[in-house]
Design a protein that fits this description.
Bound molecules: iron/sulfur cluster
Number of strands of chain A: 5
Largest interface: A-B, 15 and 14 residues
Shape of chain A: elongated
Largest sheet of chain B: 2 strands, antiparallel
Number of helices of chain A: 5
Structural class of chain A: alpha+beta
Helix content of chain B: 55-70%
Shape of chain B: globular
Oligomer: heterodimer
């Protein structure tokens, strides 16, 4: 019985491989055939815009702080109306590990992953993306969220005029 | 004098032809193996260099040649340098006795389609297949590395134990053909190839040549996940390439030998003899590749057990039965 099992166990795989020899390969041959990754694919990072077409990033540095490999750097600046933005924003994709932690940390949904995966370059320096390379003109995965509609510094005047907000508390009237 | 010159020239031409054909075959067997294994795993295999990947061997060659040729500090320099060449050379030399087709008649002279029709061709083949061990063993020993040494010791014991069973598998063939000459053995299979009259011998022989070629399921000398890469761990560049080429030349050899001993050599209907021969030899090579794509590696003790406790007694039994049958048939 054992011998018979061994013999059939020797022939079965041979038969299977022989059958597979005449099957069509399932390989996707990359440079010729490209596939669109699923929407949640984590490839190149982008900086998105809010529904009004303004930059979402408020230069809070949270993404930079969350990044495990420290590949995001930026400089905050402020508009005349008090709206914060990044004067420059730089991501070194030679270091990025596409973990997506920066997108988790971002309070404004500004920084997002995209499905654009063909960013390999021969020169590592050309993998350093500046704000112009990162900024896109759409809302990415969430088209409708507008951070400044909910909370903002000096943008919604008078203060507390945002959606679901109340006006500033008069700290003085709490005094005994 | 002229006669001698012409024969010498003819032998030289044959040598060059065989050299070229065998090396070309070895190179393209590598490609064929990668392709076939690929298809068995539902992927296309190499297809980037040239049409259908046909100049892949050239690319491989360039890659091997341009790699750093590294020699470990503890190596036994001389032996380390010539061991890989030995493997390939010995494999090539075996081709001297393989008869490819019946003698041709050109310009009134008989041209045997074998470099050297030795009357002890079988012994020559057996001798050289045991010599092939030297390349492997010396290579592993001269590297000055434990893993390489373990690999070469495994190769040594494996080849030695299967050499014996292989000899026993061929012996009945020699008895039936009544000759040690490979040409005579092929001639003896004009009516019936020996695979039909000697099925047991054929089975033993096939298992033995699998062990002899150091390929799956008997690739213990190279078992990557146990002993790194075995006897060629310390080799790089073209030196490793020589081992590699040697293995594939060996594949062609063993294919031809199976053809000669059991598959009826060049005999076959319709097609010219040389085509039959090449077809059969390549089919055996395909079976090698096919098995590699299907079978897992054996354990070392299993390998030894099969060799000594199964194949050897079976071979002896086959020898006895064949001898008795031959005696009985001759009255
Ligand atoms: S994906 Fe990860 S590694 Fe890349 S920038 Fe964001 S936090 Fe850093
Ligand atoms: S976390 Fe978002 S909002 Fe804050 S700096 Fe980064 S991209 Fe801008």
């Amino acid at each position: 019985m054992g011998l018979w099992r061994d013999i059939s166990g020797t022939w079965k795989p041979m038969w299977i491989t022989l059958r597979y020899l005449f099957r069509k390969p399932v390989t996707i041959e990359y440079p010729e055939q490209k596939r669109t990754p699923p929407p949640r694919y984590r490839a190149q990072l982008i900086l998105t815009r809010d529904p009004e077409g303004k930059e979402r990033c408020v230069a809070c540095y949270l993404c930079s702080a969350a990044c495990p490999v420290d590949c995001i750097s930026l400089q905050a600046a402020e508009d005349a109306d008090g709206r914060r933005y990044a004067a420059w924003f730089r991501i070194n994709f030679a270091r990025c590990i596409f973990c997506g932690l920066c997108t988790e940390a971002c309070p404004t949904l500004a920084i997002q992953t995209s499905i654009h995966y063909e960013i390999c370059k021969r020169d590592p320096l050309s993998l350093v993306f500046e704000k112009e390379d990162l900024l896109v003109d759409h809302g990415g995965k969430d088209k409708f969220y507008n951070f400044y509609k909910h909370a903002g510094i000096g943008v919604c005047k008078p203060r507390g005029g945002g959606d679901g907000e109340y006006g500033p508390v008069d700290v003085k009237d709490l005094l005994p | 004098m002229l006669e001698l010159l012409i024969s010498g020239l003819l032998i030289l031409i044959k040598l060059v032809l065989i050299f070229g054909v065998v090396l070309g075959l070895a190179a393209y067997l590598v490609l064929a193996e990668r392709k076939i294994l690929g298809r068995m795993q539902m992927r296309p295999g190499p297809n980037r260099t040239g049409p259908c990947g046909l100049i892949q061997p050239l690319a491989d060659l360039i890659k091997l040649l341009s790699k750093e040729d590294f020699m470990p500090a503890d190596a036994d320099k001389l032996v380390y340098l010539f061991a890989p060449g030995l493997t390939a050379l010995v494999a090539l030399l075996t081709f001297a006795v393989v008869p490819f087709s019946p003698p041709l008649h050109i310009f009134g002279r008989e041209l045997p389609m074998v470099v050297c029709d030795l009357n002890v061709g079988v012994l020559y083949f057996l001798a050289f297949s045991s010599l092939a061990v030297y390349g492997v063993v010396l290579g592993g020993w001269a590297s000055g590395s434990k893993y390489a040494l373990i690999g070469s010791i495994r190769a040594l014991s494996q080849l030695v134990s299967y050499e014996l069973a292989m000899g026993l598998a061929i012996a009945p063939v020699i008895m039936a053909a009544r000759s040690f000459s490979l040409t005579d053995i092929v001639m003896a299979q004009k009516q019936l190839p020996f695979i039909l009259t000697q099925p047991l011998g054929f089975l033993i022989f096939v298992v033995c040549i699998f062990a002899e070629s150091k390929r799956t399921p008997f690739d213990m000398p190279e078992a990557e996940n146990e002993i790194v890469a075995g006897f060629h761990t310390e080799y790089s560049g073209m030196r490793f390439g020589l081992f590699f080429v040697g293995e594939y030349i060996n594949l062609v050899i063993l294919g031809s030998m199976t053809t000669v001993f059991f598959l009826g050599g060049w005999h076959g209907p319709l097609l010219p003899p040389i085509v039959w021969f090449a077809g059969k030899a390549l089919f055996v090579a395909f079976v090698f590749i096919w098995v590699r794509g299907s079978q897992p590696r054996l354990r070392y003790d299993q390998l030894m057990n099969i060799g000594w406790k199964v194949l050897l007694p079976l071979g002896l039994l086959n020898l006895l039965v064949t001898g008795a049958a031959l005696l009985w048939m001759n009255g």
